[in-house]
Write a structure and sequence with these properties.
The chain has six helices and twelve strands. The protein has 223 residues and is of the alpha/beta class. It has a domain of 140 residues: 3-Layer(aba) Sandwich (Rossmann fold). The strands form four sheets. A six-stranded parallel sheet has the order 5-2-6-7-1-8, with helices on both faces. A two-stranded antiparallel sheet has the order 3-4. It has a two-stranded antiparallel sheet with strand order 9-10. The longest helix has 14 residues. The chain is globular. The N and C termini lie far apart (76 Å). Bound molecules: adenosine-5'-diphosphate and ligand LXEULUCI. Pathway: Pyrimidine metabolism; Purine metabolism. Its EC number is 2.7.1.21.
Length: 223
């Protein structure tokens, strides 16, 4: 039996859907305020909050209007201030999430802001959406400090999610508490296993790779 295979029809040019290219002039001429996002990460005690405060103070010196936010989960040194491990302070909004910020501050005050600092960013689930809107739509400079990794060296919260949005990313290091070499990791001294556990030098120490691995082995052996 003879089978007739249908020959595919060649599409006429007019039938091929047009790909619409964005017009570069239109993009270039659209007037949008230009925001920025700067991200500071690293282990605990690396100087993330210190770096954040330095940048915020320098923006303030340049006459820019600033607001600082931290997670209200961080109750270590003060409720309504960002505080470094060596005691430098800056007043802030301590919030459960970032979406409540505009409402708390008021629309008019929000519009006047040039720079928003965010500390303990690992605790804000809505970090990505907030930063995207603040920089892309509202023209704010957002400076974010937070832990990139938790005590098990896993992604911590949404901090690494905003790297694709960022103008700059700075990874700081601390000093290994056991040998003084550069420390990239945070070691939890206690046996608690929950990801979020607020604490300072009583609970955590910065360590180099070698001492992170040794410490984890010792913990496993003892457990
Ligand atoms: N192992 C440590 N234990 C306690 N404090 C430390 C330790 N290493 C450094 N520090 C102090 O912490 C300061 C940095 O604090 P901070 O900016 O709050 O760090 P981060 O925000 O990265 O945790 C350093 O300047 C130093 O004074
Ligand atoms: C590693 C790790 C840390 N945390 C908590 C401990 C502190 O309260 C903050 C980090 O503060 P810092 O300003 O960076 O010193 O995060 C946690 O909850 N879980 C962890 O694994």
């Amino acid at each position: 039996m003879f089978h007739h295979t249908p020959i595919p029809q060649i599409q006429k040019m007019s039938q091929i859907p047009t790909v619409h290219r964005s017009d570069p002039d239109q993009i270039a001429n659209s007037i949008r305020p230009s925001g920025q996002i700067h991200v500071i990460v690293g282990p605990m005690f690396a100087g993330k909050t210190t770096a954040l405060l330095r940048r915020i103070n320098s923006e303030g010196t340049n006459g820019r209007n600033i607001a600082m936010i931290k997670s209200n989960k961080d109750t270590r040194y003060a409720i309504d201030s960002v505080v470094t491990h060596d005691g430098t302070k800056y007043p802030c909004w301590a919030l459960p999430d970032l979406q409540s910020f505009k409402q708390k501050l008021g629309e008019e005050e929000y519009d006047k802001l040039d720079v928003i600092g965010i500390d303990e960013a690992q605790f804000f689930d809505d970090l990505y959406d907030f930063c995207c809107k603040a920089a892309d739509d509202d023209g704010k400079t957002v400076i974010v400090a937070g832990l990139d990794g938790d005590y098990l060296r896993r992604n911590f919260g949404p901090v690494l999610d905003i790297v694709p949005l960022a103008d700059t990313v700075t990874k700081l290091t601390a000093r290994c508490e056991l040998c003084g070499k550069r420390a990239h990791f945070t070691f939890r001294k206690t046996n608690e296993t929950e990801t979020e556990l607020i604490g300072g030098a009583d609970t955590y120490m910065p360590v180099c790779r070698q001492h992170y691995v040794n410490g984890s082995m010792v913990k496993k052996t003892v457990a």
